[in-house]
UniProtKB/TrEMBL annotation:
Cross-referenced Pfam families: DUF4042
Chain ranges of the DUF4042 domain: 353-533
Domain of life according to the entry: Eukaryota
PANTHER family from the UniProt entry: HEAT REPEAT-CONTAINING PROTEIN 6, MALARIA ANTIGEN-RELATED
Organism placement in taxonomy: Eukaryota, Metazoa, Spiralia, Lophotrochozoa, Annelida
Protein name: HEAT repeat-containing protein 6
Positions of the UniProt region annotated as Disordered: 271-321, 650-671
Gene3D superfamilies xrefs: Leucine-rich Repeat Variant
Ranges of biased composition (kind: Basic residues): 287-302
Residue ranges with Low complexity bias: 271-286
Organism: Capitella teleta
Coiled coil: none
Length: 1107
């Protein structure tokens, strides 16, 4: 039997092991007999086993299961004294040995449940304790007992009404240890809530009542954590309980629990009516309780036993709100040693644990409740005005004045989780003086006052708190608050007050506080405050007095935030180059501090690049040192910093290329960077650090982040790089496109998709072929992430091919078989997932626009394969592939997500720009396919509920430049556009109406285009549709108004088209159907506008992708 026991090196424990082994063997050999001698021997064995010292673990789980199963056979339920001893043995073996009973579990559980049904009251408590120990972490194996224990007439539910406090506490302990199944959740919730709402009986001791409440609160917390829901009508009553128990045991605080709290300030509980006694419960820890921890398991099994060693109370500090219970020390409190001694101290600690349990349950309740529902109860826990009366008995009062450090930390955790994801609700907050004399206070102003009170409370707590863990939590709570508050709608100063206090803690000896401060500064950089206010906080003092245009470009001064981050990460960079080699190595900060400093720099690069712009060389050197670090986490954060900086630098390039595109984003400096400055950033990095890390990094996240960085080099900077660096970048990316990790492959393919748009690489046939082959391979991947990135790259590749259609060398050098493969793979991808299809149809549209090349001037550019494809007797694979591609586009116009559908419409419009492909009226196949395309677009323009699909369908219908291209579908298209105008107001989706003017302008532009190429033979058919003439006149007036207000180049083009349509209609006046022509003439009257100043159009992201 030696192998069944875990021997301890302690000689005393070894002795206990030998005794246990001997007693176990005797018990296993014992045979049940119905006589006094047997009962005496069994009693002696059980007493001997219970007398052993179980503080050292020496028993295995299988040994316990076998022993307890034998006891179930030997101990008769009729002998309650033996049953009690057996229950004690179960608690000793399972609880004190910290075991989870698995072997013979059902046998032991069945015995205990039968005992609860048969035994009298005095042994029920022991049986319940044993049951709580058995079911802990075993609920999934005991589902057959759920109904018997927790059903409508279940054993535990009946015992919840017991008047015996010990029995009641044991019942709650059992419910707490059970993971309640779905059909028992509401019943158990009501049971626990009723327990918490019941006042303390007069005869019950305070400590006993506290332990009972602790069990109830822990059970409620477990129920909320497991189920993530609660009955709809129980939120208010539970919040009322928690609001009272959050202040349990504190002088002057309420003890009468109201029936409910309400989400409006109408019927609120008045805490001033309170009795002298305190009613509450306490948890074990202020932080989140994890059921898997052994220590908590032991405490749960003990049935809510007392916890020794509550932290020493914080010394008395400045009393901001003059509450009598605020952070008093033990010598000044009403529980002084002279009056209460040790018992008073234990009572005080028990009260504090009750408050901790209440906060932990509140935390779980917030997590389990929908944000918008919980937001309605904010006024119950957060004051909306300053002063002691408003602050009393709120969550902020507990943060400031609770005498227990753990309780204060728990309150801060509750406030933090309450503030998380609250931005959408706080967006309405404002702080205005115009309502101070008003007869009412708008809710937006109330929100503003609440936000100010939270700021005031947290800053006061930060200045007075002595606990390092509490300070860390306060700063993290401030970071969460900053991310969700709309500072631009509030009076200036709140954010400044926060940032003013951060420097006092940012160099603290505790690294957790340093990390929290850096996180808070990152929140400041990402906040909704005005950029000028944030710059004033982050830039050096001398620069904050300068105009904003000079702040971003000033040099010499180093931002205090940048200095701290560099000091934490690479302090040697702050020294002069001559001092770096001679100076001693500075103390290295802990890894979390270094990583958080790099994250803060990345956030500054994205949100406030002007802070880093003056010292971009320093940032580059810092990134190089990060790449040379041996820790992969430092390498990764250095790569993310480079990604953030390079993204903004690339935006600088686009800003220079697109003049008049509007103002630069707030993060960008007013003065653009020169190409030499951009080159100085990239050349040293590409000369060694980046390629070396890409080839040697063992952490895959570093590789794919660096691939994203290479994609941000930008066309103008890439063109200035040496030829060898060109080859190096392309070789690395083409190699990483075959990497083992799919994230790296996806990032490499995406970078190649960026490079194919660079003018210096676009005409390189060899590179385009290599990139095309890499994309084709990626589109055959199993990973959807890789295929989605590859489809996007294929769309960019097809764009580049279209731009090269006028270059004879590229057309002759690009393989026709590779082009055929691109068609086949893109057609297959257009039937893939929606994430792939949206870009696959874009690629098909571009490829169809490129094929076959147009004739330019006297030079006819057409490859032999393409000429063979269009031969009259040919039915080869190429022609079939093109037809399949067109059929796929037609199918995608009517199916898939809206993004797929509008991309398909745009792709068909792209295809229609290739006249030789489909617009040959003499080819029967071309005419049939052309008619099918036109009819599909005509149906989409008036039937689709999405306005962006209809806009792109109307745009595609206006692509053909001649009347002959429309064939017999001209009248159908005209009528479809009029039908689209007729159903314009029938859309019930109000989110689409923001595109209404754009849709009217595009449909009107398409009708104007048709009117400009209208022929006399069409008048008879168009005149039959006379019921739409009034509608046409109405919307053409609206169309003229829209284009007259559009002072961009596109507006000028539409006005020119309108005048051409007017001239064409007037030229048809001598023909028949004068009534219809008169109507059109009236519509096009006065269409030539006065000269206006033209501006470059504001391009949407959608238009940019196809331009």
């Amino acid at each position: 039997m030696e192998h069944e026991l875990c021997f301890d090196q302690n000689p005393f424990a070894a002795g206990e092991v030998r005794k246990f082994r001997e007693l176990r063997l005797k018990l296993l050999k014992l045979v049940y007999k119905d006589n006094e001698e047997y009962l005496a021997e069994l009693t002696e064995l059980l007493d001997a086993l219970n007398s052993l010292e179980y503080s050292h673990k020496f028993v295995r789980e299988e040994t316990v299961g076998e022993l307890l199963a034998q006891c179930c056979y030997l101990v008769p339920l009729a002998n309650e004294r033996l049953v009690s001893k057996f229950c004690l043995l179960i608690c000793n073996l399972v609880n004190k040995q910290q075991l989870v009973l698995v072997e013979r579990l059902e046998t032991v559980t069945e015995y205990v449940v039968r005992g609860l049904h048969k035994c009298t009251t005095w042994v029920v408590f022991d049986l319940l304790r044993a049951l709580g120990v058995i079911v802990y972490e075993n609920t999934g194996r005991l589902t057959q007992y759920h109904e018997d224990l927790l059903g409508e007439h279940g054993l535990l539910i009946r015992l919840c009404t017991s008047q015996d406090e010990n029995v009641l506490r044991a019942v709650i302990q059992c419910i707490e240890n059970l993971t309640i199944r779905e059909d028992c959740q509401v019943r158990c919730f009501r049971c626990l809530l009723s327990l918490l709402q019941t006042p303390k009986p007069t005869a019950m001791e305070t400590m006993t009542h506290c332990k009972l409440l602790m069990c109830g609160l822990k059970g409620m917390q477990n129920l909320l954590v497991v189920t993530h829901c609660l009955p709809a009508d129980a939120l208010g009553p539970l919040l009322a309980v928690l609001k009272v128990l959050m202040f349990h045991g504190l002088p002057g605080c309420p003890t009468n629990i109201p029936l409910s709290l309400y989400p409006t300030p109408l019927t609120q509980f008045d805490p001033s009516t309170s009795s002298s006694a305190a009613t509450t419960v306490t948890p074990k820890k202020a932080s989140n309780v994890k059921k898997g921890k052994k220590k908590q398991a032991q405490r749960k099994k003990k049935g809510g036993g007392e916890e020794e060693g509550e932290e020493e109370e914080k010394p008395n500090t400045e009393d901001v709100y003059a509450m009598s219970w605020s952070k008093v020390s033990s010598s000044d409190s009403e529980y002084s040693d002279a009056e209460g001694g040790v018992q008073a101290s234990r009572t005080k600690n028990t009260y504090s644990r009750v408050r901790q349990c209440a906060f932990c349950s509140f935390h779980a309740l917030i997590k389990a409740t929908e944000r918008r529902v919980m937001f309605g109860y904010w006024t119950c826990f957060i004051p909306d005005s300053p002063g002691e009366a408003a602050m009393a008995h709120t969550l902020l009062a507990a943060i400031l004045k609770d005498p227990s450090t753990k309780s204060r930390r728990a309150a801060i955790a509750v406030l933090t989780v309450l503030l998380e994801s609250s931005r959408q609700f706080l967006m309405a907050a404002e702080d205005s003086d115009q309502y101070r004399s008003a007869p009412y206070t708008p809710f937006s102003v109330t929100l503003g006052h609440m936000i100010k009170e939270i700021h005031t409370c947290l800053l006061q707590a930060l200045s007075s708190e002595a606990s390092l863990l509490a300070i860390t939590q306060i700063i993290k709570c401030l970071a969460t608050l900053i991310l969700n508050v709309p500072y631009q709608r509030l009076q200036a100063g709140l954010l400044t007050a926060v940032v003013t206090q951060i420097p006092a803690f940012i160099s603290h000896r505790d690294p957790n506080i340093c990390v929290a401060c850096l996180t808070c500064l990152g929140s400041v950089a990402s906040s909704q405050a005005q950029p000028t206010e944030v710059n004033a906080l982050l830039l050096p003092p001398r620069l904050t007095e300068a105009p904003p245009s000079e702040q971003a470009t000033a040099s010499g001064e180093l931002s205090w935030v940048l200095k701290i981050c560099v000091k934490n990460t690479a302090p040697s960079l702050l020294l002069d180059p001559a001092e770096r080699s001679s100076s001693k190595t500075a103390a290295v900060q802990p890894l979390p501090v270094r990583l958080e400093s790099l994250q803060l720099l990345s956030q500054l690069a994205k949100s406030h690049f002007g802070v880093l712009r003056p010292r971009l060389t320093l940032i580059r050197d810092l990134i190089q040192l990060c790449f040379m670090d041996k820790d992969p986490a430092v390498q990764l954060h250095g790569a993310k910093l480079l990604d953030g900086v390079s993204t903004v630098v690339q935006q600088q390039q686009q800003q220079q290329q697109e003049e008049g595109e509007g103002e630069a984003p707030p993060a960008l400096p007013r003065e653009p960077m020169s190409k030499q400055q951009m080159l100085d950033l990239w050349s040293p990095l590409l000369a060694g650090p980046v390629p070396n890390l890409l080839q040697t990094a063992t952490y895959e996240a570093v590789k794919y982040t660096l691939c994203d960085c290479l994609a941000n080099v930008g066309p103008s900077v890439f063109a200035l790089l040496p030829r060898e660096q060109h080859i190096l970048c392309l070789t690395l990316l083409l190699g990483l496109a075959s990497d083992e990790d799919f994230h790296v492959r996806a990032a490499a393919v995406r970078a190649l998709g960026v490079y194919v748009r660079y003018p210096c690489l676009r005409e390189d046939v060899c590179f385009m072929a290599d990139a095309a082959n890499a994309v084709l391979t990626a589109l055959d991947e199993q990973s959807l992430v890789v295929r989605a990135k590859a489809a996007w790259a294929l769309g960019n590749l097809s764009n580049a091919i279209v731009l090269n259609r006028s270059h004879e060398a590229f057309v002759h050098g690009f393989s026709d078989m590779l082009l055929l493969k691109l068609f086949e793979v893109a057609t297959a991808a257009s039937k893939d997932s929606d994430r792939v299809r949206s870009n696959a149809v874009r690629a098909l549209g571009n490829l169809l626009r490129y094929l076959p090349p147009k004739s330019h001037g006297e030079v006819g550019l057409q490859s032999e394969a393409l000429m063979f494809m269009f031969a009259a007797t040919d039915s080869c694979r190429f022609k079939q592939t093109v037809e399949a591609a067109i059929e796929s586009l037609i199918t995608n116009v009517a199916t898939g997500t809206m993004k797929v559908r509008w991309n398909s419409c745009y792709a068909l419009g792209n295809m229609l720009q290739n006249e030789p492909l489909l617009l040959d009226s003499q080819a029967a196949d071309s005419a049939r396919m052309r008619s099918k395309v036109f009819r599909t677009l005509a149906e989409a323009v008036h039937d689709c509920r999405n306005f962006k699909v209809r806009i792109n369908a109307a745009l595609a219908l206006a692509v053909p430049s001649r009347r002959s291209h429309y064939g017999s579908d001209f009248v159908l298209i005209w009528q479809s556009l009029l039908r689209a105008l007729q159903v314009l107001e029938e859309n019930s989706d109000f989110t689409e109406f923001r595109y209404l003017n754009s849709l009217i302008e595009q449909i009107g532009g398409s009708l104007v285009h048709l009117a400009a190429i209208l022929e006399a033979d069409d008048l008879s058919a168009l005149a039959k549709d006379s019921q739409h003439q009034a509608l046409l006149l109405c919307y053409l007036e609206k169309y003229k108004q829209l284009i007259h207000e559009n002072h961009s180049v596109s507006g000028a083009q539409r006005r020119t088209a309108l005048s051409e349509a007017e001239r064409n209609v007037r030229s048809l006046q001598p023909h028949r159907e004068e009534v219809f022509l008169d109507a059109l003439s009236v519509a096009f009257d006065d269409c030539i506008p006065d000269a206006v100043e033209l501006k470059n159009p504001q391009k949407s992201a959608f238009v940019q992708s196809y331009d």
